[in-house]
Amino acid sequence: MTELRRVDPRTLVPNPNNPRKTQPDARAEHQLALNIKTVGLIHSPCVRELEDGRLMIVAGHRRVRACIAAKLDEIDVHVRSGDEKSDTMAAVAENVVRADMAESEQWRGVLDMREKGASDTEICRAFMVTPAYLRGLMLLSQIHPPIIAAIDGGIGPSYTERNAIARTPLERQRDVWAEIWAESADEGSDPADYEMSREDAAHFDWSDFVRYLDQVELYARDYEFDDETAKEAGVVWEEDLFGQGGEDNRYCTQYAAMFKAQQIWAEKTRPEGTIYLQSNEYGEGIAPDGYRKVGSWEMERDGDIPAIWVNPRTLQIQKGRLRELGEQSSRRTESDALSLPSAQNPEKPKERADISGTGLKIIGEVRTQALREALAAARESADPWDLIGAFLLALSADNVNIHGDNTYDPYGAASERDRAVASVFPEGVLVRDPAVLRNAALEVLCSFMNCEVSMHSGSGLPAQILGVLFNADAHMPTMAFEDFLKTYSKPGITKAVQAEGLEEKPTGKAMREALMAHVGEKRWVPEPATFATGIPAWKAKIKKQAARAAARAQLDAQTEEDDEIDDQSSDMELCDEQDVAEADEETLTPEEDVSADDTSSVSETTSSHTELPDDPRIPTQLAELARKMPEHLEIIMV
Fold it and tell me: Compositionally biased, Acidic residues: which spans (predicted)?
């Protein structure tokens, strides 16, 4: 039975077992209160009457808070009859189905339902989820709490990685977690309970964490480093009492310590002239700028530089070779080789960027919105030459194929380009109306030009230059909000607050709060987020293109010159051959003033060669040539 009553929202009692425990977003709460104040309460909360006559909220805590904030004296509520089990199910279902709810809250709600006797089938029907999703929630019961917190924060492991983690004993998860975050936890706190932030997540690889869990027993006999190195790296050996006799049965379960020991040992035992490299997630060494790794199938050259690195997957020291890019290694000098970072001067790890990849994505989205607003504002006054320049820019955009058109419909509906062309060529002839052309051109630009960070659909630098052309910086909104500022590294946020004349704070959070308080309601856009920052990169791009074009022209000119020299050489050789042939012909032709005695002497010495039988098989020209060259040519009949 359900009864509709009109009550004062302030008299309603919150449900102590409300499954939603996370703090609500203040901005969303304020928006809901304004909405209710404007249009009224559309969906009444559900309540249950307690034994003392008070009404307890079953579903609708957020709506009740919004009604109180909107200063409503009375609201309608549904008073339902039921037991604790049905009320809990309604509360959890209301959150799962109608509003976003953290996975840990859903999991706790499911546990509560099971304790009250609900079957999995009933829970799936009530929450509108599949049994597979329900099984995924139950994995959280076998996962270390800080990892669950990361999952709730959207920075946790994937579903596959969760399965691998859940198969590992909680004690092992806790030990590995404490080992990883030992240096990040506050002094006096247990690193096993450390909850990672989004800044931590930017440099954390869950696949590595899963691999650490699998590396349970790392035996000393599989590694070469000595006891001094082990002590320096913090390796603590344990003895395998069931190991085979006569072998070194010491082992360690601290993956990070063993990894560090291998790195130190690789540095210590590095042969002279060998480079120590950092490794990537696949276990391959990372070549420094200006160099590449030489493949195992390539021939070794004198200028190749030996390199070593530690594979994080196997913890084995691996070897390879480096070769300079753009030049033959044989041209390298000894001083060139010494300029490469070596083990005595190891390559410094790359410093973290001021703004993370997530921050760059946010900048791209905000820039896109500002660019589209700038184009829309120019509809009435855009100069035709500006439009021509804009379309030339658009044709050089990275996504000109065109990917990323937000008006494209794969089911055949007209895109913005189709509609624009139809408006300016309605009868197959261009409509020369400036307003129509201007509006159509800007609509098409808005449909695909964007500043998003995407390999396939982002427009790249041309979109930033387009924003400069249409003064899109003036349309940029304030970026002094928490989600964006969290993407800054500590050095990055330090630079940001110092640019505003503020003092550096001990933590990034304190500096973010100080910056937001300083900015207040004013518009704040950091310099890296402005469109104008694309101008230097654009100039560099144009300069690089010009250099490539000049190099190509020089190569073409050199090739053409070489071809002309080859042609001249061929002509000269041909002339020489003709001269020689003419000279031979003149030498072989009998002179008219030769005496009879000379003729008779020649005939006597060559009679054996010139007397050729009349044979139709011998060509006449060949026979004549044999008579003229008796010393060089003789026809032998076979």
Answer: 558-596
